[in-house]
Design a protein that fits this description.
mainly alpha; 10 helices
Length: 211
C-alpha cells in the first residue's frame, strides 16, 4: 500500500468524522485513566454505565481511596474482572498521590508504572487526554491494520510501529479514533460491512463481502 492510498483513506475518514474521540465518558485525565482501566475486556457502554454512578462520588485519587476497595467494587461489579480492576484503581491512586501530587503523569514510562496500566492504556491516555500523536492498538485496530493492508504485523507492537511509520503526520493525532471506530462499526471481526465501507476500493482485504 503506497502513501497516496493511505492518505486517501484517512482523508475520507476525516471528511466523514472531522473530530473523532473516545466513546468512554470522562471529564478529566484522571476519569479517562480510570475508565480505560475498567474497559479491558469490557464494552465502553458497560463502563460508561458504571462510571456514570462512580465519578459523581469519586473523581479524584483521594476520593477513590476514601471510598475504599469495597466501595469501588459496589460501582464496578457489573464489569468483567471487576475485583482485579478495582484493586488496580486503589493501587494506582496510591501511586498518583505518593509520586505525582494526585495528577495523572504525561509520559508513557510514568503511566506504565501505574497498577494495571500497560502500553495500550498509556497510549490512550497520552493521545486522548494530553493530545500526543501516539497509537493505542487494540483488537479492532490490530484487525483493521492487518485486514486492509495499512499495517500488517504478527503482534500489536508490530502493528503499532508500522502505523506510526505509515500514517501521514497530518492524520496521526486522530488516527487512533478513526481506526477503532472503523473496526468497531464497519470492519467487524465476523461480518465486515464492506458494502457500506468508506474505503472499500482502497482496502486490500481478499475476503470482501458484497451482501
Amino acid at each position: 500500500m503506497n502513501k497516496q492510498i493511505r492518505t486517501e483513506m484517512f482523508t475520507r475518514w476525516r471528511e466523514a468524522n472531522p473530530n473523532p474521540t473516545t466513546e468512554l465518558n470522562f471529564s478529566s485525565p484522571f476519569e479517562l485513566l480510570i475508565a480505560v482501566l475498567l474497559s479491558a475486556q469490557a464494552t465502553d457502554v458497560g463502563v460508561n454505565k458504571a462510571t456514570a454512578k462512580l465519578f459523581p462520588i469519586a473523581n479524584t485519587p483521594q476520593a477513590m481511596l476514601d471510598l475504599g476497595l469495597e466501595g469501588i467494587m459496589e460501582y464496578t461489579k457489573t464489569i468483567g474482572l471487576y475485583k482485579t480492576k478495582s484493586k488496580h484503581i486503589i493501587e494506582t491512586c496510591q501511586i498518583l498521590i505518593a509520586k505525582h501530587n494526585g495528577e495523572v503523569p504525561q509520559t508513557r514510562e510514568e503511566l506504565e508504572a501505574l497498577s494495571g496500566v500497560g502500553r495500550k492504556t498509556a497510549n490512550v491516555v497520552l493521545n486522548t487526554a494530553f493530545g500526543q500523536p501516539v497509537m493505542a492498538v487494540d483488537t479492532h485496530i490490530f484487525r483493521v491494520g492487518n485486514r486492509t493492508g495499512l499495517a500488517r504485523g504478527k503482534n500489536v507492537r508490530e502493528v503499532e510501529d508500522k502505523l506510526m511509520k505509515n500514517i501521514p503526520k497530518e492524520f496521526l493525532m486522530n488516527a487512533h479514533h478513526w481506526l477503532i471506530l472503523h473496526g468497531r462499526y464497519t470492519c467487524k471481526a465476523q461480518k465486515p460491512q464492506c458494502q457500506t465501507c468508506l474505503i472499500n476500493d482502497l482496502c486490500e482485504y481478499g475476503g470482501k463481502t458484497t451482501v
